[in-house]
Amino acid sequence: MKKAFFILCISVAVSACGGSSSTKGGSDSAATKETSADADTTVAKTSTEAAGGAAGAAAGEKLLAANDCGTCHKVDTKVIGPAFQDIAKKYDASDANVDMLAKKVIDGGSGNWGTMAMTAHPGLAQGDAKEIVKYILSLKK
After folding, report:
1. 76, 85, 91, 131: which one has the fewest Cβ atoms less than 10 Å from its Cβ?
2. Hey, is 118 helix, strand or coil?
3. What is the enclosing helix (H) or strand (E) of 108?
4. Which tens digit of pLDDT belongs to each residue from 86-127?
């Protein structure tokens, strides 16, 4: 049992470090498609959108699907990290929160949602991180 758990942890860590290449293959592509499908369903149910309107939310959704976010997060279910809807419940869509959360996405870290550290995404542009955060915050129920 411990060996299986260890292998699972290593697999998740390796998957999470997959980077942000849009030419991924194998299971990473399937995870991206699943995240996109989950996000499409949620967008249809969501009435609150962050600053930027529907176009901004769509851009953030596409950026989120193109990165490795779906490895640790799902729209409405906690995986390794919190569900995107839980993040949206915790933070309002203010400019200060968008800036702060975009910095956390780029820098990584832990503490706000437990001890599991979020992988840093240093190759992600600040503007792209903000669009992703705006989309996530638009998922508030």
Report:
1. 76
2. strand
3. none
4. 999 999 999 999 999 999 999 998 888 988 999 999 999 999
Rounded distance, CA 23 to CA 127, Å? 21
- pLDDT of 17-66, one tens digit each? 444 433 333 333 333 333 334 444 333 333 334 345 566 678 899 999 99
Tens-digit pLDDT profile for residues 4-21: 444 444 444 444 444 443
Domain locations in the chain as residue ranges: 26-137
DSSP-assigned states of every residue in 30-93:
HHHHHHHHHHHHHHHH-----TTHHHHHHHHHHHHHHTTGGGTB-SSSBSSS--HHHHHHHS--
* CA dihedral (69, 61, 79, 111) positive or negative: positive
Task: Show the tokens assigned to 76.
Answer: 């409405």
Q: What is the CATH number of domain 26-137?
A: 1.10.760.10
Q: Are 75 and 83 in contact (CB under 8 A)?
A: yes
How distant is the alpha carbon of residue 41 from its chain centre? 16
Q: What is the value of pTM for the model shown? A: 0.62
